[in-house]
Design goal:
With about 425 residues, this protein is α/β, with parallel strands linked by helices. The chain contains eleven helices and 18 strands. The radius of gyration is 22 Å and the shape is globular. Bound molecules: zinc ion. Zinc ion (ZN) binds near residues 242, 243, 245 and 263. The site of zinc ion has 8 residues, from loops.
């Protein structure tokens, strides 16, 4: 018998935030917003009334708190990934959470957001759909412009600066960065939106979403004195900029080093990298990351990209209760996309194939919950799999897999450029 689980009910309509929870949400948000002395710049949003769509960038949990401050006392529904619901479904529904499985194209979500707008509330979307890995913009889905046009209400952006510097995805320790900043800006009025083409809406959203937390840190001269500030950075910078070896980078304290050639870099208080000996290849962390991307792109263009066959542990999240161990198996990520196969704890086989056109990006986790290490998160409309390659038995980088997912999709799009473009899956 195949394992059957009770599934999360995606069809339940969004809940209007209970009035008595609203001051509570503000009270829970404000201490952090005050502690980091967040400065909110309003542009065209001072007298704006719901309903509207609010698009936010995503670097840390603080983003939610700043959003709460920006829109209070208006009500909102928030699109939240299912892993954010674990063990607190009731609470999340009551504060307005709408559940979504990451990087899936879900028509139910559009229905829920339409309901939010009809209720006269704010539809809050984090369109990058995952935390930024190095404080720069992640890929945005093409479906966004179409969604905004469909909802026929003003489009507003909330771009936070400093949240990655304060608590980077690869090492969440709160570095006490202050002040942080946020731009809360009207991008389209209802009338402007009606007169603008989908492509132009997308273009303006992408333009508004350009941000770079490390450049912001330099510009503001904000110092991070945390002694372990570089620890975890090797998860993102997995390839040595000097000898080009992969999976040999490590970090300790403020030092990033390569186990293959021995080169070392210091992460300065201003978030820059500086080689301890010889040339500094990249002082700006996002430049190093984009260099890695270019190398992955080359492998994709040459048709040689492959993670190899990785032994993996697969956990599944059919509902918001808790992860369930599905079984052991293998994962390959190559020119065909992801293939995960294995045997569950009852001896039945399982499989998930995510081909290249079905995935424009993917969510990864670094040392998720401190349990089984780094993982890749793959979803269908009914299921969420957290797939952990075994670090004892193989070399891998989930960052490289995420970059490769985006580059494979981009190459696929370029190939199809002369043919009809399919709409970007997922939101
Ligand atoms: Zn090296």
């Amino acid at each position: 018998m195949k394992k059957e689980f009770e599934r999360f009910d995606m069809t339940l309509p969004p809940v209007r935030t209970k009035w008595y929870l609203m001051p509570l949400m503000l009270m829970l948000s404000l201490p952090d917003v005050i502690k980091h002395r967040n400065i909110l710049h309003r542009e065209g949003t001072k007298d704006l009334k719901a309903p509207f769509v609010l698009l936010c960038n995503h670097n840390a949990f603080m983003d939610f708190k700043v959003a709460t401050k920006a829109i209070f006392p208006m009500r909102a529904n928030y699109v939240v990934a299912i892993d954010g619901f674990i063990g607190r479904e009731k609470l999340l529904r009551n504060v307005g959470g709408i559940c979504k499985r990451k990087f899936t194209s879900d028509p139910t979500l559009v229905r829920h957001l339409t309901r939010t707008i009809k209720n006269g509330d704010i539809a809050v979307i984090y369109p990058e759909a995952r935390y930024s890995l190095c404080g720069t913009t992640a890929i945005l889905p093409d479906s966004l412009g179409k969604l905004c046009k469909l909802l026929r209400v003003p489009v507003v952006v909330l771009i936070c600066h400093g949240h990655h510097i304060n608590s980077p995805y690869w090492n969440l320790h709160d570095r006490g960065v202050k002040p942080t900043e946020a731009e809360y800006k009207l991008l389209f009025t209802k009338e402007e939106l009606a007169e603008t083409s989908v492509d132009e809406v997308n273009r303006k959203i992408v333009e508004a979403f350009q941000y770079d937390d490390y450049a912001w840190q330099m510009e503001k001269g904000i110092k991070v004195t945390y002694k372990k500030r570089a620890e975890g950075l090797h998860k993102v910078l997995y390839q040595c900029a000097s000898c080009k070896a992969e999976h040999k980078m490590t970090t300790k304290g403020k030092i990033l080093s390569c186990g293959a050639c021995g080169k070392e870099w210091e992460m300065t208080e201003l978030g820059q990298l500086r080689a301890l000996d010889g040339k500094t290849e990249f002082s700006h962390i996002p430049d190093w990351y984009e260099w890695e991307r270019a190398n992955v792109r080359r492998e994709v263009e040459e048709g040689t990209y492959s993670s190899g066959e990785l032994p993996v542990r697969v956990d599944t999240l059919p509902n918001a209760e808790k992860f369930i161990h599905l079984g052991e198996g293998t994962m390959v990520h190559n020119m065909n996309g992801f293939t995960v196969r294995g045997t569950d704890t009852e001896g039945d086989s399982f499989e998930m194939i995510k081909n290249v056109p079905s995935l424009y990006s993917c969510h990864i986790e670094y040392d998720y919950l401190g349990k089984y290490g780094d993982c890749v998160d793959l979803n269908t409309l009914k299921d969420t799999w957290y797939i952990y390659p075994d670090p004892e038995r193989c070399d891998f980088s989930v960052t490289k897999m995420a970059l490769a997912t985006e580059e494979l999709y981009a190459a696929h799009r370029r190939k199809r450029q002369n043919g009809p473009l399919q709409s970007n899956p997922g939101l």
